[in-house]
Amino acid sequence: MREKEIESRLKREVERKGGLALKFTSPGIAGVPDRLVLFPGGRTFFVEIKSPGKKLRPLQVKRKKQLEALGFKVYVIDSLEAVEEFIQEVVK
After folding, report:
1. Theoretical Cys-Cys bridge with 33: which of 14, 28, 46, 76, CB 3.0 to 4.6 Å?
2. CA-based angle 77:83:88, to the nearest 5?
């Protein structure tokens, strides 16, 4: 399973549930999550996509902690099953 396949499934499932899964880049700040996921009602989540078994790099861990300290939920998704779990958790 490749990271791209997981990311495509995430994007598709989020859109099916009425949200957006925007590719997130921040010029000048490395290590930010791959996707900014937005759902109706102002619900915002950050998602880092990884290939199965891969871990966050130290800079990604730092960015995750920074975002969480600001009150945002940051998910690390490394499988199609994890995409489904994410959708079930965040879609009300």
Report:
1. 46
2. 125
* Residue ranges of domains in the chain: 3-90
Residue range 2-25, pLDDT digits in tens: 999 999 999 999 999 999 999 999
pLDDT over 90 (residue 92):
no
Which conformational region is residue 20 in: left (phi greater than 0), alpha (psi within -120 to 50 degrees), or beta?
beta
Residue 14 contacts residue 88 (beta carbons within 8 Å): no
| CATH fold of 3-90 | Trna Endonuclease; Chain: A, domain 1 (3.40.1350)
